[in-house]
Structures are given as C-alpha cells and as structure tokens.
Amino acid sequence: xxxxxxxxxxxxxxxxxxxxxxxxxxxxxxxxxxxxxxxxxxxxxxxxxxxxxxxxxxxxxxxxxxxxxxxxxxxxxxxxxxxxxxxxxxxxxxxxxxxxxxxxxxxxxxxxxxxxxxxxxxxxxxxxxxxxxxxxxxxxxxxxxxxxxxxxxxxxxxxxxxxxxxxxxxxxxxxxxxxxxxxxxxxxxxxxxxxxxxxxxxxxxxxxxxxxxxxxxxxxxxxxxxxxxxxxxxxxxxxxxxxxxxxxxxxxxxxxxxxxxxxxxxxxxxxxxxxxxxxxxxxxxxxxxxxxxxxxxxxxxxxxxxxxxxxxxxxxxxxxxxxxxxxxxxxxxxxxxxxxxxxxxxxxxxxxxxxxxxxxxxxxxxxxxxxxxxxxxxxxxxxxxxxxxxx
Length: 391
Hints:
The longest helix has 43 residues, at 4-46. This protein has a 17-stranded mixed beta sheet that branches. It has 391 residues and is of the alpha+beta class. The protein has two domains: 90-145, no CATH class; 157-387, no CATH class. Helix 6 links the parallel strand 11 and strand 12. Helix 3 (90-109) runs antiparallel to helix 4. It has six helices and 17 strands. The chain is elongated.
C-alpha cells in the first residue's frame, strides 16, 4: 500500500504537467496574437489611405477673377415707372444699340453709304426704344460702359432662414434686402439664446464695380455697435473700433454685401462660375480689410425644411497660413441665385448656419413667403432700431 506522501507526489506530477501545458498553449496563443497584430498594424499603416474617409479633392483653379467694371445701363427709367430700373443683363442695352452699331460697321466698310446707314439705324433705334433716344454718340458710350462683367442685382425681399449654432436650431433669422435706383439696404438678423440678436446692416449705392457700401454696422447682442464707413470721396475706410484708416479700392465690400455682390455676379452670368473659378473680393470688417478668395466648388443639393434644392457651392479659401476661419455659401438658381445656405466656421470649430426657410420660391414669385411684403414672422424681429441709421 503506497504511503500518503507517495500518493500526494503521484497526484501532483500530472497536475504540474497539465499546468505547464496550459501555460505553454497560452504563451503560443499570445505570441501568435502579437504577431498577427503586428502584421495587421504594418499592413494598415501601409494601406491606411484605402480606409481614409473619401474626400472630394478641391477643384483645380482654372482662373482667378479680379474686381472689374460691370455692365450697366446709361438709359434713364421711363417716366411712367420711376424707381423700377435695375442694373440688369448687358444684352438688353446692347439690343437697343445694335442697329446703330451695325450702321457704324457699315460706315467703316462703305464710307459712301455711311450717312444713310447711320440715319436709318438711328430711326430704327428710336422706334424700338423711344424713351432711350439712342444716338451714335450714346451708342459708342453705351458700348464702352456695357463691355464690363455681367451683373444683375437681386430684387427686393425679406428672406427668411432657419438658424443653427453648432447644429442646434434657434429662432428664425432674416435677411432684409432692398434695392432700387438709389442703391441698396441689407439688414441681417440672427437671434442667439442668452446672447441676444446678432445684427449686421449694410447700406450703399451701385457704382461701376457693383455694390458700393457706404456704411456697415455690426452689433452682437448687447455689445455696442461697431461702424465701418466707406468714404468714396476721400477713398478711405474708417472704423469706430480703431483710429486707423485704410485705402478704399474699387469694388470693396463689407462682410455681408459681399454675399449679394457674389449673387449679383452669378445672376448676371451663371455659366462663368464653373468649379475651380475663383473671384477675389476686397472685404472690410469692423477693424481691418483684406482680400477674400471665393472659389466655386460646384453644384450640390441643399436639404431645406420645404424640400431639396440645387445650389452652387462657394467657399472662401484660406487667406494665410493657419487660417481656420471658413465661410461657405450656396446660391440656388430656383431662388433667383439668392443664398439657400450660409455657414461660417470659426477657428475654434464653432459654426453659425443660415438655412432657407419657407417655400422654395424667389422673392416676387406668386405665394412666395420670402417676398417683399412682411409676414407674420417679421413681427417677432428683435433687431434694435439703432442698428441701422442713415448718416
């Protein structure tokens, strides 16, 4: 009969062997796991671009457009409809002068018949446009003025938008836009909780380079307003936030007139703004000014509360190294090339967004809630009356 000690040793030996076998198996499994992880990590490192999120490469810049003179009419508005004239497409004015231009061409080709041709052309022009009274001299002048970039100012209207801050929806915002022979007025109201209404007001006229701001007023909540003055006579830009002044270049804009300047240019010639085309705008803020390169990204779909709308996406490119502030604008043809969406991204990542609210119809269209007539939403506007004053 085996002794207790011998029995204990006999039982312990197989247990030790089993434990050693298990430890060996776990060691092999762990080693294999480490090897596999190392191989997988190396493979992923070499092929990580395959798993990177798909990003649309920025379009290749095909042209850089600088501020230039716009095509505008020299013809006064008819007496029966004062205040209705708009800076419109150049073709309307060229059509009025076309008979005279043809006569001028005929004069160069056949001097002997020039006098009769000019007289016939002037008479035909008078019949087609009696209010314009086009003459040979006026036609030559109209040709020089109308040779600029095509430009069409949007019609007046109260444009309503949903507003978002970092994706959280707030109260509706409004862009009040008015344009006539004397110029334009634009007031942007964006209510923010706990802070108050952010208001931006721009007033000016329309000159040879498009919208020409005279006074820009910015008020953020309860903070005092900041005013930027565009002195067109002295060719200087002045600020209330600083005593410094800047030279006033042709075509200079403020932060929000730039949006309508872009809309007017696109309305005049949509086909000129293909992906990659970049237009430079000189923009004055509340204490400084710099050139904004605005690039055409392409046509995209914008989802509004009333449905989907096709819009052309424009983006401000970085102005310098480390510039993280970004502005994106979507202009919709079905809305008369007015903004369907505007997103401003701050350097800290915060985002302000305006998204078209209401029927997908442009101002002036039948039953358009964003037309020039006030709606029920206008009564809730909290824009202070002092945010915009004529000088």
